[in-house]
Specification:
By secondary structure, this protein is mainly α. The chain contains 18 helices and two strands.
Length: 462
């Protein structure tokens, strides 16, 4: 059932260079999520820097939880500023510089590091995570000013796809040309590394932080040159932005669809974040993956995710954002359960398989292949969940308060961001089982899907 909305004002399509430059934010920041948060650095931190998989996963989870708390506390205020209260770009520039410095600081993560170094690495990871999310608050708020509402799904999906392709390109650069794999001294492509990196101190793993920082700063240049900032300030009664935000929050019970959507997103985003935070760590621990396997794994999932984002954007505009989100969450749940059904000796929980043989090729065991198949399902639908959430918010929000609601949208995605990583970390620490710890993620997906089913789509408008 669609709900009507009135008072719409048509938005002119921004020039192509502005739209492409806006999408380059996703391209620029994606190496942080792809190389650091998911595929390469996080497993290296847990298994090599800390030297103990479950303990490393627990520490990484507590770090992600702390970052989530700071994101939850700060996002409402940033969202209020994003609600038509002046320029976004100065804030984006500030958090971009801090983000780059924090990513570059990960270079200090040496193997079997002392406790002081481990905590400094965790601090850099926390700061980088917070700044990446704060920056997204302002870039997301710019999106509705770039295209008509009927094209929001494709713009949002194309942005996510651009980010995935950026992650893919960064993986090819790092794994294929720079990082030596294992004891061979050559890259994944069998080439001599472009940089002279010391394998004994794992410089190949540590370099992903500085490389991600340089990548981000270089590819954000078009954003600052060509994306138009929103300079006007919405007329208000002189009260602080937080007071206006509080008025919007108090009015949410009268807007049931927005309320259910924000509640659903708050829950399912927690689960989705936890999957990407711990997925690579779990696979590396179960199968003993090194940089070669993690690099291939990352390339496959990133490529799949890019096409999933493009397909999701088209379905968003032609069917509905709700259809994309609910369908993707259901497939995401199946994929997560499938991943958890795999361990060293079993697939689908009960089927016995031969364990991976020492020295065998990447993904040569049956367990790895089943794990990869379920991971591909997760990779295919993860991006549409996120991109269609952005476009659905723009469609549900009152046209005259759309940027204010984008601030609330940011708050809903961050206010409980610490819960899923914290629950995974706690369960893992108590049970000393990474599988049981990650099983907690499925609860967030189920609850989020149930809440999302109650949302009614608004009537379409151009």
């Amino acid at each position: 059932m669609a709900t009507p909305q009135t008072g719409a004002t048509a938005t002119a399509r921004a020039p192509l260079r502005a739209r492409i430059s806006w999408m380059l934010f996703d391209w620029s920041v994606q190496p942080f999520y792809t190389l650091i948060l998911t595929f390469l650095f996080a497993p290296y931190f847990a298994n090599v820097v800390v030297g103990d998989g479950p303990q490393g996963q627990s520490m990484w989870g507590f770090g992600a939880a702390i970052a989530g708390i700071f994101i939850a506390l700060g996002s409402p205020f940033l969202g209020a500023f994003a609600d038509g209260r002046g320029q976004r770009k100065p804030w984006i520039a500030l958090f971009s510089v801090i983000l780059a410095i924090a990513m570059a600081s990960l270079w200090i993560a040496t193997p079997a590091a002392p406790s002081s170094t481990i905590y400094l690495v965790l601090l850099a990871f926390i700061i980088a995570t917070v700044c990446a999310e704060y920056t997204a608050v302002f870039t997301n708020a710019i999106m509705p000013s770039l295209v008509p509402q009927s094209e929001l799904g494709r713009l949002s999906g194309s942005g996510w796809a651009c980010g995935y392709f950026g992650g893919l390109a960064s993986l090819f650069l790092v794994a294929g040309l720079i990082v030596p794999m294992g004891d061979r001294g050559t890259t994944m492509f069998g080439l001599d590394p472009l940089l002279p990196l010391d394998t004994s101190t794992r410089e190949g793993d540590r370099i992903v932080g500085p490389l991600s920082a340089v990548w981000y700063l270089v590819f954000m240049i078009p954003f600052f040159l060509f994306v138009p900032d929103i300079k006007q300030k919405r007329v208000h009664d002189g009260r602080p932005a937080t007071a206006e935000l509080w008025d919007t929050v108090r009015a949410l019970p009268q807007n049931r669809d927005m309320l259910f959507f924000l509640a659903a997103r708050m829950i399912y985003t927690d689960g989705l974040t936890a999957i990407f935070t711990f997925g690579g760590i779990y696979g590396a621990s179960v199968f003993g993956w090194g940089p070669l396997e993690l690099g291939i794994f990352g390339i496959i999932l990133t490529l799949i995710g890019a096409f999933g984002a493009l397909i999701g954007g088209v379905l968003d505009d032609h069917i509905s954002a709700k259809f994309v989100i609910v369908t993707a969450l259901f497939l995401l749940l199946l994929g997560a359960i499938g991943i958890l059904s795999v361990d060293k000796n079993h697939v689908l929980f009960f089927l016995d398989v031969a364990p991976k043989e020492a020295g065998s090729g990447p993904f040569s065991s049956a367990g790895e292949q089943v794990f990869l198949a379920f991971a591909i399902v997760v990779g295919l639908v993860a991006a549409p969940v996120q991109s269609s959430s952005r476009s659905l918010l723009a469609r549900l929000a009152p046209p005259d308060k759309i940027t204010q609601y984008f601030g609330l949208f940011a708050f809903s995605g961050k206010v409980t961001a610490f819960l899923a990583p914290l629950l995974v970390a706690l369960v893992t620490a108590v049970t000393q089982s990474q599988r049981i710890g990650m099983a907690a993620i499925t609860l967030f997906l189920i609850v989020g899907m149930a809440l999302m089913a109650k949302v009614r789509m608004p009537a379409r408008r151009d």
